[in-house]
Amino acid sequence: MKFDSNGAWLDAMAAVRANRQVLLAVAGVFFLLPTLLSTVFLTDVQTQILEAMNKPETVESIFSANLGLFLIFGLGGMLVQVIGYLTVMTLLSDRGRPTVGEAIVVALRALPTMIGIFVLTMAATLLASMVFGLVLGGLFGIILGTSVASAIVAVALIIAVVYASIKLSLVVPVVVNEGLRNPVAAMVRSWQLTRHNSLRLFGFFVLLTIGYIAVAFMTTVVLVGPVALILGQGDALTFYTGVISGVISAVTSVIFIAVLAFTHRQLAGPSPETISETFE
């Protein structure tokens, strides 16, 4: 099936508007709140690390002294956001009309699969970087020199990672909407669904990214700039900036999940439950 980006966008936005109250409530808990907590507890530590970037020993000591904070608000926040992604995807699925509680239960059941997919993806990326470095780096290093070979390897790895990201972009709706719990099976299914549409999906995601950057930049300039002039540097401005960035992240996350949900629905077709409901 040929992917229709305009149709996916219009369907996604219609679904977000129709369910905006419950979706924004879920986004506030799973996307906005973790961002605010990270802003409150990690900003000072991150500032210290940035200021000491040219002193590796100092950076290491700062990181070691605050390891607990990074685990709780870094990895913990990431985990909460993944559950939020899965919850929103469940609420936007075509498998009945789940309550928020039921959607969270589905998300928690799908979480181990997503962790497995993440581990496999990281392992594959590491393996690819090693293979590219040894094969391409060695081959082009002999012919063109080390510096040129390193640049070629870096470009090739970036292209491979982007391509794999497009091919695996539908793993979340596959896990949630199709109920696949085997990480490998979910990755294979996403790869199959994106067949013959990789370039269209790539162009669509690039446009979404450009739109997000433009909107986030303009919103930050309009809402943060004047307040920064009034408040000046300090904790109040840091918290306010965290609120604005958190709201932007929450809204865009919901929209992006909706886009993925309706991209999957378009390429995979309606679920069996939807088809059966049509003929009742």
TrEMBL record:
Record flagged with keyword Membrane: yes
Membrane among keywords: yes
Alphabetical keyword list: Membrane, Transmembrane, Transmembrane helix
Superkingdom: Bacteria
Parts of the chain that traverse the membrane: 21-42, 62-92, 113-136, 142-164, 201-231, 237-262
The protein, known as: Glycerophosphoryl diester phosphodiesterase membrane domain-containing protein
Record organism: Novosphingobium indicum
